[in-house]
């Protein structure tokens, strides 16, 4: 009886060990997975791998972009061409640059005059329109001279200092007559500058006949007509103001 009981106990122990060996790999696997998922070090490693992958991709994209830029950039050398057509002399070029600045200066002064008479406290719309129009014309004169220099191949360098921003000499006027007087003086100054430029460019050894003809036939012609127009308007305005005072200026402004 004792031997029988001992045999049964022995079989039970063997069976338990066998069952434990059979369950152990699965339990160990579950435990290892649980530990891996809860391990913060493992999450950090995953994030580092992800960032490293992004860095690699970024460097790769940057390399491709740089390579593409090199492919798109065309480095063309300036070809050697004859220079004989660049025949304008320094004195004439300097005079042209000076005249461009004179035209821009006049344009700014006319803008100041137009802005003054456009004020609500002055309210002379006729004078304002007259001076704003003159400002536009002077600006166009300067632009045409720039285009001429470009056509003659003389704007390949020193373009940055071609025009300096001027400061206006005057910003307020006593009345319309004083403004017209200043406008006439301004036109006389510009005309003298053009004549000086013509004298420089037509004399030896320059003989720039084409430029002289352009300045004489276009610029000087317009300047002389402009001076005559301002002189006539100033005469009429002074006559009206001498008999009617401010009412004369008001009526003159209405007809500008």
TrEMBL record:
The gene is LOC115621787. This is Ferritin. It comes from Drosophila lebanonensis (Fruit fly). InterPro entries: Ferritin, Ferritin-like, Ferritin-like_diiron, Ferritin-like_SF, Ferritin_DPS_dom. PROSITE patterns: FERRITIN_LIKE (PS50905). Keywords: Disulfide bond, Golgi apparatus, Iron, Iron storage, Metal-binding, Oxidoreductase, Secreted, Signal. Its main location: Golgi. Pfam families: Ferritin. Fe cation binds at residues 103, 138, 141, 187, 223.
């Amino acid at each position: 009886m004792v031997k029988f009981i001992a045999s049964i106990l022995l079989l039970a122990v063997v069976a338990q060990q066998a069952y434990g060996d059979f369950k152990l790999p699965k339990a160990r696997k579950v435990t290892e997975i649980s530990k891996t998922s809860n391990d913060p070090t493992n999450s950090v490693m995953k994030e580092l791998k992800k960032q490293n992958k992004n860095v690699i991709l970024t460097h790769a994209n940057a390399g491709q972009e740089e390579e593409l830029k090199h492919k798109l950039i065309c480095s063309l050398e300036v070809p050697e061409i004859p220079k004989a057509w660049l025949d304008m002399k320094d004195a004439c070029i300097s005079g042209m640059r000076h005249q461009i600045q004179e035209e821009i200066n006049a344009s700014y002064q006319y803008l100041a005059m137009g802005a003054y008479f456009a004020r609500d406290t002055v309210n002379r719309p006729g004078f304002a329109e007259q001076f704003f129009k003159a400002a536009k014309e002077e600006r166009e004169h300067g632009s045409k001279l720039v285009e001429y220099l470009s056509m003659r191949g003389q704007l390949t360098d020193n373009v940055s200092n071609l025009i300096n921003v001027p400061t206006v000499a005057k910003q307020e006027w006593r009345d319309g007559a004083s403004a017209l007087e200043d406008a006439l003086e301004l036109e006389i100054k510009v005309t003298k500058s053009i004549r000086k430029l013509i004298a420089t460019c037509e004399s030896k050894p320059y003989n720039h006949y084409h430029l002289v003809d352009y300045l004489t036939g276009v610029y000087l012609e317009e300047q002389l007509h402009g001076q005559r127009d301002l002189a006539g308007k100033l005469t009429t305005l002074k006559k009206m103001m001498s008999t009617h005072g401010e009412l004369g200026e008001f009526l003159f402004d209405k007809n500008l």
